[in-house]
C-alpha cells in the first residue's frame, strides 16, 4: 500500500535527510518514532504528497506520487489520503458539519450529508454539527479532524503527532478512535510521533535516526 | 458546499470588514449612478424644453437670466419690452421668422407661474388637452398637467393670481378679475406641465386695472392710450373705456387687433423659431443686441454655458465618487490580503483535502467579485432610490419631473468597471493564496 525507496529530502544543501525504505501493507497500522529534528514531519509530508522528494520515490496504492502533476497530486491526495495534524485547524467560517462536507466536495465527491452525520454521531460530536469548530474543546477538535481525514474512505491515513497536545485520557481515546476508524474503512494507518505513550500499542514500528549526510 | 457558497461564508465571517467594504462600494457607485441619472435627465429636459427655440428676445440684462425665465421658468424675468419696439419680430410676415411667441410673465398662483401668451405656446410643446377646451377669452386658463394635479385644479375652478412668484397673501391681485380654468393639458414632460397658460390679454387686463386703481394714474398715459386707438381704429374708438367697464363685469374681450399692432402694450419676451438658420438670422441677433433696447439670446449657447458652469460642481462630485470607488478597491485588497494571513492554515488544509492551486485562486477572486457585486447592487439601489427621493425636492426647484426608476446604458459601464475593480483588487491576494507553500504552512502549525 505504501512503499518508499531511497527517499531523501533537503531543506538546504548541507542538510540532507535520508529516510529508511518502507513497505506497509494495506490495513496495517504503523508507528513512526523519532526525536525532534529527525525529519518525522518531513517524511509525513513526503508520504502525503505535500512535498516532493529530492531523491527516491513514494508509492501509495500503486501510484507513484512523483509521476503526478501538481493538480493530479492534489486530486489524488484528496481522494486517497487523509491527514491529521498535530494542531487541528478548520475553515473557521464553516460549521462542523460544513467542514466535513467540504472535505467531501474538495476531493471531488458528492457531499454525503448522511455519512457526515453518522460519522459525527459516531465520534460523539453529532450534537455539535452546527457550531463553529472553534467552539469545540481540544478533544472534540481532534475527533473532528479524524472524522475529516476518514470521511472520504481513504486508503492511507497519516497522523502527525495526533496525541501530543492531549492528556492521557484523551490520548487513549483518540488512539482508539484512529485505529477503529481506520480499520473500519480498511485504511493503512501511519502515526508519526515522539510520544512514548504510544510505543507499546503498535507492532509495526519505524525508528527515524537523525541521519544526515 | 460549492466555491460560491464558501466565498460568501468567508465574507460573512467578518461582518465588520464586509460592512466597510459594502458601504464604501455602495457609496461610490451610488453617487455615480445618481450623477448619471441627474445629468442624463437634466440634459433630456433641457433639450425637450428647448423645443426648437432658436432665439429669445427680451429686455436687456443677463442673457442666461432671460433664457432661464422665459424658457425654463425658473428665474425672474429681465423686465418688459414694448410691443412698439418688438413689432417687427412679432409680425407673422417676417421673412426669416417661422414662429414668434410672445410671453408675459410675472404673476403666479400658489407658486405656479402664469404665462400670458398665444395658443402657439401650447403647440410649441406639443401639448394636447386632456380635459376641457382651449381659452376663448381673457382670464380663461389652461393648466399644465402637474399644476392641475398638485393644486387639484379642475375645469371651471377659479382663482386669483398674485404678483411675483412667491406665495404671499399681500401680493394677491384681489381687485382683479378671477381666472377660470377651462382646460387641462396632458403631461408632456416639458416645462408647460408646470405652468398656467392664459391669453396675453389677461395679464394686460390685470396690470392695466392696477394702473387704473392706483390713486394717481397718469392722465397723459390714458390720453395717449385712447388717442392711439381712436386714430388707428375707428371701429373700436372707445376700446379703453370698454375695457374698463367690461373688467368689472368680468367679461374682457379678446383684442381684435393682431398682437404686433398693439404698440402701446408691453410683453416680457418673445420665443422665436426661424425658418432656417443662416447669416441673416445671425445678423438679426447681433443687430437686436447692438441697435435696440432689447437683447436677443440663443438658448442653445446659454444652456451650454450654464452646463459648463454647473459641470464644475458635477465634476467635483464625480471625482469624489471615483475616489471613493478607488478607496473601496483598496479596502477590498487590504481586507482580502490581511485575511490570507489568518487563513493561511485553512487554505493549506484545503489543498490537503484535494483543492488545486487554481481552486484557491478562484476562491479568493470570487470573494472579491462577490463583494464588488454586492456593493454595486446596493449602490445601484441607493442611487436610484436617492434619485427618486431627490426628484420630489427638485421638481419644485427646477420645475422638472425627475425619476429614479429608469436604467441608463451608462450604468452597464459602471457595473463592468466596479466588477473589474473587485477582481483586480482580489488578484494579488488570490495569486498569493494559490502560491501557498502547504508543507511549510502546515509544519509551522
Q: Which class do the helix and strand fractions of chain B yield?
A: alpha+beta
SS class of chain A: alpha/beta
| Chain-averaged pLDDT of chain A | 89
What does the average pLDDT of chain B come to?
85
Report the count of strand segments of chain A.
10
Secondary structure blueprint with pairings:
The complex is a heterodimer of chains A (213) and B (445).
Chain A lengths: L1 E11 L2 E4 L3 E3 L4 E6 L5 H8 L7 E6 L2 E2 L5 H11 E4 L11 H11 L6 H10 L15 H13 L5 E5 L7 H18 L2 E6 L10 E5 L5
Parallel strand pairs in A: 4-9, 4-10, 7-8, 8-9
Antiparallel strand pairs in A: 1-2, 1-3, 1-5, 5-6
Helix pairs in contact in A: 3-5, 5-6
Chain B lengths: L2 H11 L1 H36 L4 E5 L3 H10 L8 E2 H8 L6 E13 L2 E6 L1 H6 L4 E4 L7 E4 L1 H7 L6 E2 L2 E2 L15 E7 L10 E4 H14 L5 H14 L6 H11 L16 E2 L1 E6 L4 H13 L2 E4 L1 H54 L4 H42 L11 H26 L2 H7 L1
Parallel strand pairs in B: 4-10, 6-9
Antiparallel strand pairs in B: 1-12, 1-13, 2-11, 3-4, 3-8, 3-12, 5-9, 6-10, 7-9
Helix pairs in contact in B: 1-12, 2-11, 2-12, 2-13, 3-11, 11-12, 11-13, 11-14, 12-13
Key words describing this protein structure:
heterodimer, A: 213 residues, alpha/beta, Rossmann fold, 5-stranded antiparallel sheet, 5-stranded parallel sheet, 6 helices, 10 strands, 33% helix, 24% strand, globular, B: 445 residues, alpha+beta, 11-stranded mixed sheet, two-stranded antiparallel ribbon, 14 helices, 13 strands, 58% helix, 14% strand, elongated
